[in-house]
Specification:
alpha+beta; binds iron/sulfur cluster; elongated; 15 helices; binds FE2/S2 (inorganic) cluster; seven-stranded mixed β-sheet
Length: 566
């Protein structure tokens, strides 16, 4: 540990701590543009200038001590940047001296020389560090009389990022992010002096799957999200802490909403999961919440068509239809997109019905070495644990498809999945006497349900999920579901009550409490104890990909594992 004096107070910091971080830890904020704790520190914006000194050495090469027994500091005559310098024993730092304040005013004046005065119409207004530091540390005026340099505006750097070069302060955060984190060296500066501009290298575009992180990183309004820009002023947004549910990584997010509409998702720092980043695919995967295909009312099939109903009748009808079938002829297709609470209630329903088959639908895509997981289900680990799957997720789907085809399955409960996706034809589905479907959107399969229950999207509900590394994390409600759609756990709780009587579950906390009494991995936890950053609860092992399309040989193999009559 090194002793460091910051603004007259001595502190201790471990070797290797950056001076700018040491200041933050000591409760002193030093303004910065180019510095970002997850990137290299080129020290090119000069906004973090401070006064720095080292201990005065006596003739014996030991520090001279003052009356307080601490080293006397020799202050350097010129200010230093503190973002590229580590702490050293006896170092002194002044962050608010007249010299430092004068320096910051000078840096701000330089940075603003060519910056356009378009704050009122700039999309970054409300979260622009240039505005904020200008007010906090700027000179309040400019001595620049010449014409500002004009630079390119509204340049499409890639499919999702728009660049306004006039606003760029050349901090190089975006350049470093692309080369150091996204492994895509696509951005750079060209031309000299006041005419330097940010651009993509010839023949390249900023189109990697992490491109929108540059928008988060840009301290000014130079890089904006093509999707979000000019849609909503950021000060109108309500931000809800949640997680991305588009793959098994479970990146921590902030969901920006206004009046029950999701406008954007941005990454929330969690060093156990996603550092400060998230991928574009997950970030933009929320538009379906506003889809025209949203299911808005419970519906019951009257023999000819699905007709809107009320919740009481729909749940009673679903329970009636399921109860009329023997458990040996019931299959439940749940989803790796469901929360642990929903999966636990599903398990209870399966036990009440004595359902013969229960499984989830695996979902895979191409992954990368950064964040994106091959497993596109956010809660495969939770499904294995809470549903007590005795085989690989998806292993029973082929058998279920075959059993539906043969007429053995007489009741099918599909939760957030379309049975027609895994080899069950529409004709076969229509032949199932009881097909109860709960989903967010209408799809080819659930149009043929006998009871259709409209559920909630990831931003509309609460619950917990376990990511691909075994971390239990919380999902939070940012908007209300549309129409008469309900939170999935409430629908399942009501169905469970209709099948098995009162169960003492009134809130989602009750579900978690009952679940944690049964699942040892959740022992001692509550939804609130999970906290904003989650808790590691289990070790997860990688599973091989099961086939999605039923092949004759796969069905044979699966039948050997699930012989008829088991
Ligand atoms: S575009 Fe933004 S992040 Fe990139 S160099 Fe310019 S100011 Fe920095
Ligand atoms: S890596 Fe996965 S969890 Fe993270 S933002 Fe992308 S899709 Fe979402
Ligand atoms: S933050 Fe230190 S030079 Fe930019």
């Amino acid at each position: 540990m090194f002793n460091v004096q910051i603004d007259g107070v001595w502190h201790q910091f471990p070797k290797g701590t950056r001076v700018i971080e040491a200041c933050t830890q000591a409760g002193v904020y030093v303004p910065r543009y180019c510095y970002h704790k997850k990137l290299s520190a080129p020290g090119n914006c000069r906004m973090c200038l401070i006064e720095m000194g080292m201990p005065r050495m006596g003739p014996d090469r030991k520090p001279d001590l003052g009356a307080d027994g601490k080293p006397i500091i020799n202050w350097m005559p010129r200010p230093q940047i503190c973002c590229a310098q580590d702490v050293a024993e006896g170092m002194g730092v002044r962050t608010s001296s007249p010299l430092v304040e004068e320096c910051r005013k000078g840096v701000m004046e330089f940075l603003l020389i060519n910056h356009p005065l378009d704050c009122p119409i700039c999309d970054q207004a409300g979260e622009c560090e240039l505005q904020e530091f200008s007010v906090e540390y700027g000179a309040g005026g400019s001595r620049f009389l010449e014409n500002k340099v004009k630079k390119p505006k509204a340049v499409q750097l890639g499919p999702r990022v728009t660049l306004d070069d006039e606003r760029c302060i050349l901090c190089s955060r975006c350049v470093r992010f692309c080369s150091e984190i996204a492994n895509d060296d696509v951005l750079g500066f060209v031309d000299r002096g006041s005419h330097t501009v940010l651009t993509a290298h010839p023949g390249k575009r900023l189109e990697n799957n992490y491109s929108l992180n540059t928008v988060d990183l840009c301290p000014v309004g130079a890089l904006t999200s093509t999707d979000f820009r000019f849609k909503m002023r950021v000060w109108f947004l309500k931000e809800t802490k949640s997680i991305c549910t588009s793959c098994a990584t479970g990146c921590n997010t902030l969901i920006g909403t206004r009046e029950d509409i999701v406008y954007r998702q941005t990454p929330r720092e969690n060093d156990h999961v996603n550092s400060c980043w998230m991928c574009d695919y997950g970030r933009l995967n929320f538009k379906y919440l506003e889809s025209e295909n949203r299911l808005l009312e419970p519906q019951i099939f009257n023999g000819k068509e699905l007709l809107p109903s009320d919740w009481t009748s729909a749940i009673a009808q679903a329970a009636l239809q399921l109860r009329q079938v023997s458990g040996a002829n019931i299959a439940i297709i749940a989803s790796g997109r469901m929360t642990n609470e929903e999966l636990w209630l599903t398990r209870k329903i399966a036990d009440l019905l004595g359902a013969r088959y229960i499984d989830i639908v695996p979902r895979h895509g191409e992954g990368d070495d950064i964040l994106l997981s091959e497993d596109r289900n956010p809660n495969t680990a939770g499904a294995r644990l809470v549903l007590r799957l005795d085989e690989e997720p998806g292993a029973k789907l082929l058998v279920v498809a075959k059993a539906v085809k043969s007429g053995e399955i007489r009741a099918l409960l599909a939760l957030g999945e379309d049975p027609s996706d895994f080899g069950i034809s529409i004709e076969q589905l229509t032949n199932v006497p009881a097909f109860v479907a709960m989903d967010i959107l209408s799809n080819t399969g659930n149009e043929h349900a006998t009871v259709l229950l409209p559920a909630s999207g990831f931003a509309e509900k609460r619950g917990s999920m376990i990511n691909g590394k075994g971390r239990l994390q919380r999902l939070n409600r940012a908007v209300r579901p549309p129409g008469n759609a309900r939170d999935d756990w409430e629908i399942l709780r009501d169905l469970m009550q209709a099948l098995g009587g009162s169960n003492g579950i009134y809130t989602i906390e009750d579900v978690f409490r009952q679940m944690s009494a049964e699942v040892p991995e959740f022992d001692g936890l509550t939804l609130s104890k999970i906290g904003d950053l989650g808790v590691h609860v289990m070790t997860v092992y990688e599973s091989p990909r099961p086939p999605m399309e039923p092949q004759a040989k796969d069905i044979e193999k699966a039948e050997q594992r699930h012989p008829a009559g088991r």
